[in-house]
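INTERNAL AUDIT FORM
Audit reference: QA-55
Scope: verify that the stored structure record matches its stored sequence.
Auditor: D.O.
Record contents follow.
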Amino acid sequence: MLAFQFSSFGQDTINYIPDTSKSARNSPSRDSRKPHILGYATPALLLSYGLISLENKPVRRLDKYVSYDLLGSNTNFTTEVDDYFRYLPVVVVYSLNAFGIKGKSNFIDRSALYLISNLLLSKSVDFLKDETQRERPSKTDFRAFPSGHTALAFGAAEFMRREYKDVSPWYGYSAYAAAAATGAIKILENAHWLSDVLTGAGVGILSTRVAYYVYPIGKEIAGGRKDLQFRTVPFLGKGLIGASVTVTFK
């Protein structure tokens, strides 16, 4: 079991009152709400490929070729690295901030953004798994589509890219490399087909991008109310990392 502790983790309560401080300028802004169509093209293509694979025989043949012919169906490869890779970018984001290398958002904002992203991601993955009932290459169950590990990994990678793209693009590159490694491991373990992994990547990226689009809208609405109070409590354990958010109306 691998555990991480952050000195910045704690409990914060704030009142959302518009201001012009540096903290406010660094939080998600009106400009970040403008949707960039090209930014959604990649996850849309990945999702489209996955949905097509459900009925398209040539795509399914490619899945089976990769898992059975190229890699071999009797592989005994197994590792727990992917269990940590899917959260690694998030751990790095909070660690960098704790050590003074500040990202785009303050503690409250990035916790809320990651929470929203994970809610969207988890609900989407569970819905697709329940509806498609695709059998895994290992034939262990019927919850292959899409890959939840890959979705979490790419959602976290996009989270880190958005937080540190103005500091250095290499933060994003390294996060996406860890996410790609997670997807590759799931294929090597015969836990998922290629299309499961690509779809999971699309779900993860799209969930985080949607979170960065809708959160500033909600925050701006809340910003004009002095009686609206937010409380966040981050948590880490049992393979989970995130934050609970409580909204109080006085």
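Auditor finding: record pair retrieved intact. Residues 1-25 have pLDDT under 50 and may be disordered.
Action required: none
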